[in-house]
Amino acid sequence: MRAPGGFGLGQVPERLRPDQTARMVCGFCSTGCSLDAHLQDGVPVNLTPTADYPVNLGMACPKGWEALTPLAAPDRATPPLLRDARGRLHPVSWEEALGAFTHRFKDILAANGPESVAFLSTGQIPTEEMALLGAVAKFGMGLVHGDGNTRQCMATSVVAYKQSFGFDAPPYTYADFEQSDVIVLVGSNLCVAHPILWERVCRNPHSPEVLVVDPRTTETAMAATQHLAIRPKSDLVLLYGLAHLLVERGCVDRQFVDEHTTAFDEFAAFLVDFGPDRVVAETGIDREQLDHVVDTIARGERVSFWWTMGVNQGHESTRTAQAIINLALMTGNIGRPGTGANSITGQCNAMGSRLFSNTTNLLGGHDFAEPAHRAKVAGVLGIDPACIPDRPSLAYDQIIEGIVGGRIKGLWVVATNPAHSWISQGHLHEVLDRLDFLVVQDMYTSTETAQRADLVLPAAGWGEKEGTFINSERRVGLIKRVAKAPGAALADFSIFKLIADAWGCGELFREWESPEAVFAILRRLSAGQPCDFTGIRGYEHLEAAGGVQWPYPADGTADDASERRLFGDGRFFHGDGRARFLFETPRPSREFLRPKFPLVLLTGRGSSSEWHTGTRTSKSALLRSLSASEPYVQLAPADAEARGVSANEWVVVESARGSMRARAFVTSTVRPGAVFVPMHLATTNQLTQAEFDPYSRQPSYKWCPVQVRRPEPWDA
Ligand code: SF4
Questions:
Q1: Longest dimension (CA), the chain
Q2: Which terminus of the chain, N or C, has fewer Cβ atoms within 10 Å?
Q3: Which pTM does this prediction carry?
Q4: Orientation angle between helical segments 287-299 and 276-283, nearest 10 degrees
Q5: Each residue of 514-526: pLDDT tens digit?
């Protein structure tokens, strides 16, 4: 059997010689470090960070150094698995697997219509693969709904940027970390979550003020010059309060605001209600500290604002992200070195997903609802515009509720593990069990979701296939195939091609013959968009340039600097060229603290050696040794004492939805009234509540009322 995608099974592709170094972007986080895989006799033996890549400058975090280890895990999915009449998964051939896939899903669609089968994708596969998945599913199979696990981490930033700037456009380059004189980090534990970016902060020669807004005294907060340990989810009030004081003190860049923005006067009027007394009362920080922060921002000549999941995973997250954007706009801190309103992305290819997954956006950052966009995409792809849905997909949570309501009966999950990672996990487990047919395409058979599947399609992992990722600073970088996938596992690209052929729509994708051929299609799709990268000549260009940031149009207007930012000309992507001030009255979370559940559960990254559900990082003994060996909950000394809890004893953490056992980690790094549990634990999402930001539909993982107590006999 020869797999589509440009190479046969069991061979390193011809472009790599058996003993050479292959330079490729890391497959874990969005930082997008480059790693050099060293091959001996055609087999990768180790990795080192690339010394001259503009992202990581010779550095890598523990995950990068261990990136090859997960490929050798014993629980790799090798043959396809199909659940039999007795409920057991048993090995089948690819032909049988593809037959089951097409027959079961076609039967469901025939009986229930095009909305009855959906897909859930990922930010972990190359852009070429996710574009092919979205195109096959929507243009070939006729599905309407599909979303990605990027909904869990980045949807807020997408919506915030689109509404404020007119396009999903993180404006920065990593050099901004080194050029700022004030760095404001909101809801970001950069030291642990993005350690190489923290190294870039540490290289800043300007002795910057580093302000951290975080309810926890994280590793980053400990290293900061100012830490605003606000009450959980009082960030929106704080940000409006800072804006209020900046207006009051006349620290607004009026020329920039007048020439490049819209609705500032309405915003200033709105801010009247966010005076310092209110901010002090609601955030818990004192007036002196508030004034010091305002002074620092006002005095800064190059202030950069950064945020990540502490903002994105909230019940009013879009407006919170936009409150950060507003601060950058009103002070004119955008478009210049060392400035910006900068969302730091999560997964290695979340940015590729944002542009090319064909879920919320039509391929290339286009709009499904826009007839001209559908016509353009159809023209580039040579397909009938009628094949393209005229509306975006349901969001992830709406797909889940679609299953609950019986509207969606078939689900295809690619390279993600919702049975572990989705909010309110217990509910999701019940929901998945209602499906008529669940297909999981993954590297491993052992994930919680694969264990529930009716059909498992074995996929190659990072290092076993090629394509491109787009990192947080919009840099398109290469990944390469340096190892062969085990058994009958195939690159996701090849699986999507086989599915298209089995479904009967393969002819639509004849030009999509290899990842590099798809990259050429993606370049054409990007033409004329803010993300235009028609000037990238192909994979060899990416290799030679050390990655290329978009935009990079073919019209010769892009410069070849290795670090480029957006909005240097003050023009944004709305039709009038102006950015928008967007704001809204803060509101409480749906669930309230109460005597039964008086503590706020915070979740986040436990250590830099952990990655999300641990599907890959748990395979490395080294990475495991750098993380806690047992589940733990951080709680303040006062809260421990009030409950008679001693350090390191087993306790029960419970919410209205479930409970987990954890070791009590008594520490003053969490404020009284809050507790912290790492997000990687399999049990954490038994506690979390399914609340969503109304604009981005991103889950609110950062707020959940819980209780911590000593175990009772009935807990055993
Ligand atoms: Fe990989 Fe991210 Fe670590 Fe860099 S910081 S080595 S991209 S996991």
A1: 73
A2: C
A3: 0.95
A4: 110
A5: 999 999 999 999 9
